[in-house]
């Protein structure tokens, strides 16, 4: 009979996964998802010890996700990454290179895109910091988390550009800073700097730094340039270090604000924060910018990913006018 994991042994393994993730400075969000996938994998195999399993069991689990649970390809890929991490970095038992699970089907749906008029209507229905962030997302093509994680040093008003750090694929990229929001963004930073000084005066003012920079550069976590541009209204305890930080704004605040604005202006589309990124790319192509430029601004590794927006520009695939419109 295969050895089974007791509840305490399972918890110990999950704690080991957390420790290695934190050692490698992965995000808290990644930690949560990886731990959850490891736990699901163990339960799927009736609490068998992962050390006694391997590629075959991983393939069975991933196939189950695709065939039985009908998950999206991105979800299956995340589970795959979590299990590869478990075996390679925690158990020190790397899996074989080829994991031959049945792959989940990638969605072939075109991304939802708003017209320029619709974007203006949505942004006009918003106010305050959520409006500023939404304008930044549309004006730069950043993902929501990328926009919320920018720090003061990443905004270059002189060069009119923003550096997006550690984006998907752990690569930095540069995108345009919309001139239209410069004045309001500068005014926002004045308020945030005042808030930061108050935190310092009260014995706080630390911010999370990536890759253990707080150990490399003394007091860097209190420097103004490392602070988030869009900060949370309250300080909170970092779940990994236990240090009280002022983190960036919670993504749900912006998601809810955009959802309310879309509903308020009566747009019958399933629009979200990411829709602003899709709209940014599509509108650039419509205005004559080449596909390579758009690819760089979005941070896509493969131009094929960016090419989907050419199909959005020509919704019917050929750019043909209906005879009814002739």
TrEMBL record:
<keyword id="KW-0233">DNA recombination</keyword>
<comment type="similarity">
    <text>Belongs to the 'phage' integrase family.</text>
</comment>
<dbReference type="InterPro" id="IPR002104">
    <property type="entry name" value="Integrase_catalytic"/>
</dbReference>
<dbReference type="InterPro" id="IPR050090">
    <property type="entry name" value="Tyrosine_recombinase_XerCD"/>
</dbReference>
<dbReference type="InterPro" id="IPR044068">
    <property type="entry name" value="CB"/>
</dbReference>
<dbReference type="InterPro" id="IPR013762">
    <property type="entry name" value="Integrase-like_cat_sf"/>
</dbReference>
<dbReference type="Pfam" id="PF00589">
    <property type="entry name" value="Phage_integrase"/>
</dbReference>
<keyword id="KW-0238">DNA-binding</keyword>
<keyword id="KW-0229">DNA integration</keyword>
<dbReference type="GO" id="GO:0003677">
    <property type="term" value="F:DNA binding"/>
</dbReference>
<feature type="domain" description="Tyr recombinase">
    <location>
        <begin position="109"/>
        <end position="325"/>
    </location>
</feature>
<protein>
    <submittedName>
        <fullName>Integrase</fullName>
    </submittedName>
</protein>
<feature type="domain" description="Core-binding (CB)">
    <location>
        <begin position="8"/>
        <end position="91"/>
    </location>
</feature>
<dbReference type="Pfam" id="PF13495">
    <property type="entry name" value="Phage_int_SAM_4"/>
</dbReference>
<dbReference type="GO" id="GO:0006310">
    <property type="term" value="P:DNA recombination"/>
</dbReference>
<dbReference type="InterPro" id="IPR010998">
    <property type="entry name" value="Integrase_recombinase_N"/>
</dbReference>
<dbReference type="GO" id="GO:0015074">
    <property type="term" value="P:DNA integration"/>
</dbReference>
<dbReference type="InterPro" id="IPR004107">
    <property type="entry name" value="Integrase_SAM-like_N"/>
</dbReference>
<dbReference type="InterPro" id="IPR011010">
    <property type="entry name" value="DNA_brk_join_enz"/>
</dbReference>
<dbReference type="InterPro" id="IPR011946">
    <property type="entry name" value="Integrase_integron-type"/>
</dbReference>
